[in-house]
Write a structure and sequence with these properties.
About 30% of the residues lie in helices and about 30% in strands. It is built from 13 helices and 23 strands. The structure holds adenosine-5'-triphosphate (ATP).
Amino acid sequence: MAKQKKNDTMEKIVSLCKRRGFIFPSSEIYGGLISCWDYGPLGSELKRNLKNHWWSEMTIRRRDIEGLDAAILMHPKVWETSGHVELFNDPMVDCKTCKSRFRADKLEESKCPNKPSKSPIEHNCDLTEVKQFNLMFKTFMGPVEDTSNVIYMRPETAQGIYVNFLNVKNSSRQKIPFGIAQIGKAFRNEITPGNFIFRTREFEQMEMQFFIHPSEDDKWFEYWREQRFAFYKGLGINMDKLRWHEHGPDELAHYAKAAYDIEYEYPFGWQELEGVHNRTDFDLGRHMEATKKDMRYFDERFDEKFIPYIIETSAGCDRTLLTILVDAYDEVEIKGEQRVFMRISPKVAPIKAAILPLVKKDGMPEYAEKVYDEISKKFKVFYDVAGAVGRRYARMDEAGTPYCITIDGQTLEDDTMTVRDRDTMEQTRMKTAEIITFLDKQVNG
Ligand code: ATP
C-alpha cells in the first residue's frame, strides 16, 4: 500500500512536469527515447537557476575556487590513465526467459518486465552469471571508423579538471589549498536507467575538485561535507529527508581514502544525491606518471614539494533538480478541491513572480505591463491577464512561482500592489521599487 502511494507520487510529479512544461520525454512525437528527457520552458529556467546558484556558491562567492569548462571529448589516453577503460564497469546479468538486463548489484530495486510488481529475485528469474559491462559511450573521431579513432563521451567531468590542473594553477596564480569547479554533461551507458531523471544516460554534473596538502585532508574533507550539506539546506530541502551514507570497505573505490554520499529519501527510497570523496593523490599521480608532466606543487608553508591530494564534491544537476521537484511537491485540500503547490525556493524557482491585473479594464492591464517591463529587467516574471484571479494564483502555485503581484483598483490611486506569498498566502502591499528590493532579498539572499 505504502509502496503504491510512493509510486503514485512519482507518477503525479512526472505528469505535472509534462503538463506544466518542466520536463518532456525526449523525441516524444517519435515515441520517445528511453531514459532521455527534454527540459521545457519551466524546467530549463529551473535548471539554469540551479546551475547559477551552484556556480555562485562554489566560485563567485569564493576566492579559492576557479571555474572551468572543458571539452566533452578528451584524448582517449585520459580514460586509460584514469582507469575508466579497464574498470568503469557495472556488473550485469541477463534474464534467460525475458532477455531483460539488470544491474547485478541493484537487483532488489529492479522490476521483472513479466511481473512488474516483483524484483527479479522475488520473481525467481532465471539469471545468467554476472558479466562486467563498461559504461562509457564510444564514438569515432573523423571520417574513418576504426579502432584507432575510437573516442569516448566523458563519463564524468572530473578528468577535465585534473588534466587542466597545471593550466589553471599557472594562469590563476592560486595557491594550495584551492579548487576548480565545473558544470557539464556526462554520459554513461547505464544498464538500468530509470526513475524519471534520477538515472539517465546523458546527464549533467556539478563537480568541484579541491587541491590540498596531504596532511590537511581530514580537515578539508570535514569542511566540504559540511558545506555541501548546507547547500541543500539553503535550497530549503527538508532536512529529515537528507542523510549521510559512509562507504564501507567493500564500496570504497580503490584509490579513495574516505567517501560519503549525501542521500535523499525519494518516493522510490533512499538514494545517492551527491558524493564527497577524499581521492588522495591518485588522480594527479596517475596523470603525472602517464604524461611525465610534473604535477607536484611546492608549498612554502610546509617547505615541501608534493602531489596534491584532492577532495571532490560531485553532484548530479538533474538529480538535484529531481530532488527539488520531489521535495517541493505538496498537495493541499482547499474548499473541497485538491490543489498542488510546488514549494520551490525563490532562489531557483523558474518564475520569480507573476504580474496579474485584477481585471482586464480600468487601466489595470496597462499599469501591469509597465510593472512587468520594470521588474523583468532583473527577474523572470510572468504576465497573466486571463481568467479569475484565483485560478491564476492556482496555476502559479503549480508552477512553483513564489510570489503573485496583483494590480487592483487601489494601485491606480496609490501605486501599491498586493504581493501574495505562495506558502503563507499572506498579502502585503508594496510599490514597484519595494517589490524589486523584496525579490532581490528573497532570490539572492
Ligand atoms: P550510482 O551509484 O547512482 O550509479 P555513482 O556513485 O556512480 O552513482 P558518481 O560517479 O559519484 O555516481 O557521480 C556523481 C554524481 O553524479 C551522483 O551523485 C549523481 O548525482 C550523478 N549521477 C551519476 N550517474 C548518474 C546518472 N546515470 N544519471 C543522473 N545522475 C547521475
